[in-house]
Design a protein that fits this description.
15 helices, 12 strands
Length: 318
C-alpha cells in the first residue's frame, strides 16, 4: 500500500467536495442567516453519530462569535431532552442521509412544536430534506473512505457549511475584535485582544534621571531598575529623552573618559513612546518594527514608565 499516495488522494478528494459546496449556496442560505440573526430565541443544533460531533463544533464556533447556540443530541432529544427547545428557538438538524431512525422520529416532533427547522443534509431528497423549512446543502458525491462508508467528505462538508454560516452571522451582526475578546478572555488569543500596555508597565520599576545627572548616576539607575533603559525627564516629570544600554556602550566606544559627561550628552532625543491604552500586541509590533526591546509609556509628554519586550513575551501573547 502506498500510504503517501492514499493520504494525498484523501486530501484532494475532500478538497474537491468542499469546492463544490460553493455551488450550493443559494437564496435559502441568505434567508437562513437572517432568520437566525432575527430570532428572539437560541439556535439549537442537533445530530446523531459523527454529525453530532460536527454539531458540537459548530455550536462552539457560533457561541464564540456572538450567536447563542445549544447542542442537543438527537438520541437524547427523543428521550426527554426536547425540553431544551423553547418557543422562539431555531433548530438546525444535521444528517448526511436525512433518513436515520432517530432523525425520522425527531423531525415530526420538532415540526409539531412550530419551531423553524433547518436541515443540513447531503441527501436533499430525504425525510429531513423534504420536511425542513429551509435546507443547508452539504451534498457530497462520495466519501473519501475507499469503501465509501466512513464519514469523511460528508462530515468535512458539514463543518465547512457551519463555518460559512458562522462567518456570515459574525459579519451580519458587525461582530468586532473587541466583541471577540469578550468571549475569549483566556489564553494567548484573549490576551492579544484585550491586554493593554497599562496591564504590564505598572509592574515594572520606573527608571528615570534628570538631564544634568552624571553618567555614573545614569548607569547605576539603569542597572538597579533592570529594564535596560532610563527616561530622561525635566523637573515636571515630562519626557525629554531616553538612555539605553546601547547608548552606554556607544559612549564607551566613543569616549576615553566619561567623568565630565552628563545625561544630556548621551541621551537619545524623541524616543519611541506608547500610550498606556495601546494593546500590548501593538506595542510588540512597534518594538519589532524599530528593532528595540523597550518603549517609554507616556501620556502626552508625561513619563509614566517603561514596557519591556520580556513583559509581553512572558504573557505568551506572541
Amino acid at each position: 500500500m502506498d500510504i503517501i499516495k492514499l493520504a494525498k488522494e484523501t486530501i484532494l478528494q475532500e478538497s474537491e467536495s468542499i469546492k463544490k459546496l460553493a455551488t450550493y449556496i443559494d437564496e435559502d442560505f441568505d434567508k437562513i442567516v437572517k432568520i437566525i440573526y432575527e430570532s428572539k430565541g437560541r439556535l439549537i443544533i442537533t445530530g446523531i453519530g459523527k454529525s453530532a460531533i460536527i454539531a458540537q463544533k459548530i455550536v462552539a464556533t457560533l457561541n464564540s462569535t456572538g450567536t447563542p447556540s445549544i447542542f442537543m443530541h438527537a438520541a437524547d432529544a427523543i428521550h426527554g431532552d426536547l425540553g431544551i427547545i423553547q418557543r422562539d428557538d431555531v433548530i438546525i438538524c444535521i444528517s448526511k442521509s436525512g433518513n436515520t431512525p432517530e432523525i425520522k422520529v425527531l423531525v415530526p416532533l420538532i415540526k409539531s412544536r412550530g419551531n423553524t427547522l433547518i436541515g443540513m443534509v447531503s441527501s436533499v431528497d430525504s425525510l429531513l430534506g423534504n420536511q425542513a423549512d429551509y435546507v443547508l446543502k452539504s451534498t457530497v458525491d462520495k466519501e473519501a473512505c475507499p469503501n465509501n462508508l466512513a464519514p469523511t467528505n460528508s462530515t468535512t462538508a458539514q463543518l465547512v457549511v457551519g463555518d460559512a454560516l458562522a462567518v456570515c452571522l459574525l459579519e451580519y451582526r458587525g461582530f468586532s475584535s473587541e466583541d471577540f475578546a469578550k468571549y475569549h478572555p483566556g489564553g494567548a488569543l484573549g490576551k492579544k485582544l484585550y491586554m493593554r500596555v497599562s496591564d504590564l508597565y505598572k509592574n515594572n520599576e520606573k527608571p528615570k534621571v534628570k538631564i544634568n545627572d552624571s553618567v555614573k548616576h545614569v548607569i547605576l539607575e539603569i542597572s538597579s531598575k533592570r529594564l535596560g533603559a532610563a527616561a530622561v525627564i525635566d523637573d515636571d516629570g515630562n519626557l525629554i529623552g531616553m538612555i539605553t544600554d546601547g547608548d552606554i556602550r556607544r559612549m564607551l566606544q566613543n569616549h576615553d573618559s566619561f567623568e565630565n559627561l552628563i545625561a544630556k550628552d548621551i541621551m537619545s532625543e524623541n524616543p519611541k513612546t506608547v500610550s498606556k491604552q495601546e494593546l500590548a500586541v501593538n506595542a510588540f509590533q512597534m518594538m519589532e518594527k524599530n528593532s528595540i526591546t523597550q518603549l517609554i509609556v507616556a501620556d502626552n509628554k508625561k513619563y509614566l514608565g517603561i514596557v519591556h519586550l520580556h513583559d509581553i513575551l512572558k504573557e505568551g501573547i506572541v
